[in-house]
Design a protein that fits this description.
Layout: E1 4-7, E2 10-13, E3 33-34, E4 37-38, E5 53-56, E6 61-65, E7 69-74, E8 77-84, H1 102-109, E9 112-114, E10 120-122, E11 128-132, E12 152-158
Antiparallel strand pairs: 1-2, 3-4, 5-6, 6-7, 7-8, 8-12, 9-10, 10-11, 11-12
Length: about 160
Amino acid sequence: MVGEQYVGDCILNKLAGKRNMLHLDATIEPGKAAAGLSIGAPLAALPEATGSMRTKLGDAVELLDFGPVCVWVKNGMIDQIGVRCGYTGYVRGTTIGVGSSIQQVRDVLGPVVEDDEDNLIVAQVPGLCFETEAWRGDPGRETVEENLDAKLTWLFVFSAQNS
């Protein structure tokens, strides 16, 4: 398609517009920021919703999908930022980003565990969680240890006060 570039299994949308105001190579700062956006900033800090999909998730919660970056807005403030395929920034001071393995996260940031909501986290890094490609193992009984080679598909930044 015109305006798209294939990178591995994902499509990087190169169309011009407001979505390009997001910084797709910005440092991921756990508990604070990603894509040039800050947790707790007002909705007005987001680029115009041109080129994004906007979904109402509840009375006071919206999801804005800009492709490589998704932003959850709660009560008019940025509550969570998620980055995925097409985002090239790394967690501050590391080379951990989309496409890194659980083993790499463990080697650089510390032990990876599942929290009580099935999010993958590093306990020593509040305000950051992630998802990976599909795991191997018996459904419902998969373990981190069996899937150290699983690649990160999403990284999420949220207030460290909520973690």
